[in-house]
Design goal:
- There is one protein chain.
- This protein is α/β, with parallel strands linked by helices.
- The chain is 40% helix and 13% strand.
- The chain is built from 16 helices and 14 strands.
- The protein has a six-stranded parallel beta sheet, sandwiched between helices.
- Strand 5, helix 6 and strand 6 form a beta-alpha-beta unit.
- It is globular and about 70 Å long.
């Protein structure tokens, strides 16, 4: 397959991964971004996103001369055979996806696209966006195609180069094949469909994953009431190939840059289409209710008075990013739980290994500590919110010595009970019996 000239608009997680990985497959790629500071750093192979393998992929592609970065969007697309739109589509008013960035870029590139160029919506967008972008471009000689991404943060490069499927939605089969050819070096099933089906596939996939997580969290609550162990139950059902084990681990709720906005956007589409989808609505509501229930557990043990007030109660939080292996805080369930604790009056100190050098301003919510032991100073309880593997190996004896209480709430079921018990701490997980401290 001959190398193609590709333009990628936007250099966030999806755009930068798409551009760098396409370049690694031999294509000539220009990535455009409106942030001149980011462009300059990327030209020097300085990647600010915490994503395994991405800095190396960017550096290798730059050194091979197959990847470049620019702040000039029009120049980037002028010679491109294929243009990928990898732009933010955040949750807008009423839960609908905000397409302002996509629509703005369509206006910018309309006059400079080559005849025969294929424009690809890589961003997660509502059904009908391909038609909307095509109308904004107003070019009969340009085709708009949907090619949704299925990248997991922390595994984005791996997922791009080892996809379990490539979905392409296009009304024009020749255009679909042009996009499919970009991935010809990858061994993956190809799903060729219409634009509406491709756009809905992305939303449906994220909804289903969110549903499995809400199911696991509700099931964990039932396990606690019945004296069952959630780890054993989910292993038992997850080995059924019709169910699968992925996304059956309970936690502090689901979040991140995709699931919350995509489930709300799909719910908005349902409402606009006059389709009642109670399972989708329950999935979202269950997530919120679950986080309130976790906070109630902490308040019941550490709170003051009949109402479980946490006024003046210091808590140590371990993990703030929405998952391990990333520094991304967008819609983090850890932050959602932290906000609920703060609303109850708790004083919060947090440690997160991804935020030791990168220090976001969270001063209105938590005090950031660069050391896990220091974070526990004066804490009535510790609360594990992100599944960082290194938390298993913390010095729990030193942590216990700094605490005023002895409760550890592991809302990721990450920790081993024995080291905590030896330190005189009581471990509370989700969906399993608490492990009381051993004394003496």
């Amino acid at each position: 397959m001959p190398a193609r000239h590709v333009a990628v608009i936007g250099t966030g997680y999806v755009g930068l991964t798409t551009g760098a990985c396409l370049a690694s497959l031999g294509h000539s790629v220009v990535c455009a971004d409106a942030d001149p500071h980011k462009v300059e750093r990327l030209r020097e192979a300085r990647v600010d996103i915490l994503e395994p393998g991405l800095p190396e992929t960017v550096r290798d592609a730059l050194e091979a001369g197959r990847l470049e970065f620019t702040g000039d969007t029009a120049a980037a697309v002028a010679e491109a055979d294929v243009v990928f739109l990898c732009l933010p589509t955040p949750m807008g008013a009423g839960g609908a996806a905000d397409l302002a960035a996509v629509e703005a870029v369509a206006g910018q590139i309309r006059e400079v696209l080559r005849p025969g160029c294929v424009v690809v919506n890589k961003s997660t967008v509502p059904v009908g966006t391909c038609e909307r972008v095509a109308a904004l471009l107003g070019r009969a000689d340009v085709t708009v195609v949907s090619n949704p991404e299925f990248l997991r943060e922390g595994r984005a490069v791996h997922d791009f180069l080892h996809p379990d499927r490539i979905v392409i939605g296009a009304a024009d089969r020749d255009a679909a094949r042009q996009v499919a050819d970009l991935y010809s070096a990858l061994d993956a099933p190809l799903v060729l469909t219409d634009p509406a089906s491709a756009e809905l596939t992305k939303y449906a996939a994220n909804f289903f994953l969110a549903m499995k997580l809400s199911f696991a969290n509700n099931l964990a609550t039932l396990c606690e009431r019945l004296g069952a162990d959630i780890a054993d139950v989910t292993e038992g059902i997850g080995r059924d190939p019709r169910i699968g084990s992925a996304f059956l681990r309970p936690g502090p709720g689901w979040g991140g840059s995709c699931l919350p906005k995509d489930t709300h956007a799909l719910l908005t589409v349902c409402d606009q289409s006059d389709v009642d989808f109670p399972l989708l609505r329950a999935t979202i509501e269950t997530n919120v209710t679950h986080q309130h229930q976790l906070v109630e557990r902490v308040a019941a043990a550490c709170g003051r008075g009949a109402g479980g007030s946490l006024d003046g109660v210091r808590l140590a939080l371990y993990g703030l990013t929405f998952k391990a292996g990333t520094s991304d805080l967008r819609d983090s369930p850890a932050l959602a739980v932290a906000r609920l604790l703060r609303e109850r009056g708790a004083e919060l100190t947090a440690y997160d290994p991804a935020l030791r050098e990168e220090r976001p301003d969270l001063s209105d919510l938590v005090e950031l500590a660069d050391d896990p032991v220091r974070a526990a100073e004066g804490a009535a309880a510790c609360v594990v919110l992100t599944e960082w593997p290194e938390l298993r190996d913390l010095d729990w004896a030193a942590i216990a010595a700094r605490m005023t209480g002895h409760e550890v709430y592991d809302f990721r079921n990450l920790l081993d009970a024995d080291p905590l018990a030896r330190a005189g701490l009581t471990l509370h997980g989700i969906g399993r019996a608490s492990t009381a401290a051993r004394v003496g």
